[in-house]
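Two folds, back to back.
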Amino acid sequence: MTSTDQQPFLSVKDLKVHFSTEDGIVKAVDGLSFDLARGKTLGIVGESGSGKSVTNLTILGLHNPDSTEVEGSITLDGQELNGASESTLEKLRGNKMAMIFQDALASLSPYHTIGRQIGETYRKHTGASKQEARVRAIEMLRRVGIPQPDRRVDDYPHQFSGGMRQRAMIAMALVCDPELLIADEPTTALDVTVQAQIMDLLKDLQQEFGTSIIFITHDLGVIADIADDVLVMYGGRCVERGPKEEVLRTPQHPYTWGLLGSMPTLDGPVDVPLTPIPGSPPSLLNPPSGCRFHPRCAFANKVDGNRCATESPVLEIVDGRGNACHLTDEQRREFLADLAASKAN
């Protein structure tokens, strides 16, 4: 294996994204690092306002440079994106990296046909003719499971159902065979049957194209279905990271415990109450000192010296696994055992 093969396809190092507002500086992302290998899926999970979408819009360069300060490094296939010119980013967007947005109806133009919108993306990056672009649009609609694509290519977004619009968005994102696909909660507004279809479609297309995927969601159930690795965000920072099976089976951070404890399950007792996380996410205008989760954490008072409120925990990654928490391994095992026993009772 060459050194090039060993390099991650996407590497984000110490990313900071701060917005200037009338009320002050919003620290939307504050020191985030992660890698993504070719053909793999990274699930980024967290509550609204944790910095998930801002991170990925910044990767694409879709931020206002006049009001946004971006620090750190973002390299895609060895190319640095932070500080790259807009013309460079335009060539990469749609061609080498693409995004599926959450609200397809708001993202698609109501004034142009589905086929024209998919075709224009293809023409911009390949120089294809209108007829070639139309043929490509029909091909992509067929690939994402739109029935009668040669007829539906001339329909407008309002003539598609919600699930079909999302499929059209996926077709548009994949029309130039990008190597990185960012999916920003693409199934949130869909019913569970259509959601499952979209998830299966993404996995099939990833297998076909070898695409690397970042999947943003607040739903750990979705993460369990699609991701290889999981990054848990809170207050603009990563609090836990690791392979999907390890994070979901043996979570190490109290915030991850809270996310899992607030999820309903199909195979557990029906009379076990869900345990919501108390309080609200922190203000990123004036985030808490120390660990940003400590005002909501039931275990903060268990750590000696009030460290949770005064000292920001360091995220140490060993063999792809780590968490940012002051609890000792022994304390963590004890608390997890107590939680398991309380649920069993």
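---
second:
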Amino acid sequence: MRRVLFLALLGLSACAIPRSQAPFEAGPAAAPAEIVPEPPRARERWQPGQVIADAVRVETQTYIVQAGDALSLIAERTGSAVRTIARANRLQPPYKIYPGQRLEIPGGRYHRVRRGDTGIAIALAYKTDWDEIVQANALDAPFLLRIGQRLFLPDAASPQRAETMDAPADTPEPAPSELAAFNVDIDDIITGGEPAIAEEDAPAERASALPEPAPFDGRFTWPVEGRLLSSFGAKAGGLYNDGINIAADKGAPVRAAATGTVIYAGNGVEGWGNLVLLKHDEDWVSAYAHNDAFYVQRGDRVGRGEVIAEVGQTGSVTRPQLHFELRQGRKAVDPRAHLPTG
């Protein structure tokens, strides 16, 4: 997983984005002069909450199935997890077992999910990549966590140096805390940002309770007017940018690039600042980072050109700007290839 530190520092050379390249759909007709429309109000920012890192270590052991046992009961008795035991013993749903059967119980650390826990927060609490937790527990899309569920935690990997981008040769190295913050990326937020929900509210086949977005016509528009600070793609020194960074005045409106549903609006991940993610259909997601005020919250449906936030200077940036990404599936694509050129 590529780690990208979105630093757009003062002094970077920037290309101008002509205003003609950032058209926005016209809004409703202006109100009569005597009527002053009420400005949009900032919405409450979703926070992932603090995860209590109290994982229990389970020793590797063998369990002999007793009459009346179920895999869930065995997991509870041993402190392990249903799917972890199933994978270790090559059991397939509905996980039929029989008395006298010998089951291998994998040893390791297991975290019990509490109300409000998210995959991101759990990963950060244990300094383990969320995608490794997904793989270790064979979690399936849409990666919903259940209250009381146990997650097997793979051993934390050695810290990896996050990548920076577009930093001039005389730019000082980012602080270690800034680098560590980027053990979480857009994919993690999309798949691990959902708060845990009660078991009875989440049958295995059920997807997220988010409303489906309005039909997406495949068109995107520029989310903000401004100067290009950093383009998409490879940079000098083996660095990479998964989106584009656009300089704009603090408080400038940030608009939805297309019709969609808000799947995340918060500042629970260091470095990104205030981040909004919009889901447009089963393939496309757009990301808007370093915002100031939010005008949307998770579950809101928005139209193309609707104001969703204000440009800010939050996260690991030193000037007001918007970091904008387009993702098709799990792949970041160059936004400018899908935005109007004139």
